[in-house]
Amino acid sequence: VEIVTADVLDKASLQKALNGCQAVYYLVHSMNASHRGDYAQVDRQAAIHLREVCASLGVKQIIYLGGLGEASDNLSQHLTSRAEVARLLQD
Questions:
Q1: CA–CA dist 61, 74 (Å, integer)
Q2: Largest CA distance in the chain
Q3: What is the pLDDT of residues 22-51, one digit of tens each?
Q4: What is the DSSP string of 45-87?
Q5: Which pLDDT score is estimated for 69?
Q6: 79, 67 contact by CB (below 8 A)
Q7: At CB < 8 A and 24+ separation, what contacts does 3-9 make?
Q8: Positive or negative, the Cα torsion across 48, 13, 25, 33?
Q9: Is the pTM of this model over 0.70?
Q10: Cys-Cys link to 30, which of 25, 42, 54, 62 (CB 3.0-4.6 A)?
């Protein structure tokens, strides 16, 4: 196991960090994203970047730490964002 860091909003840094990886632990949470827009949008963009880079590099598995919650229309904005990220990564 090797631990590397990257900026999930910078695809080039993701490509460099993930090159040769077989699995990625996605432990990203953007609750403090005031200078880049709302946190749900930042979370969405980060997940899309990771998904695209993993696909291009042949990464076989993304391990995601999501939010706990039930599947309902009454989830908080935070849990709704976590569920959306899970769906994006699963795609």
A1: 30
A2: 40
A3: 999 988 776 665 545 577 888 889 899 999
A4: HHHHHHHHHHHHHT--EEEE-------STT--HHHHHHHHHHH
A5: 59
A6: yes
A7: 8/46, 8/47, 8/49, 8/50, 9/36, 9/42, 9/45, 9/46, 9/49
A8: negative
A9: yes
A10: 42
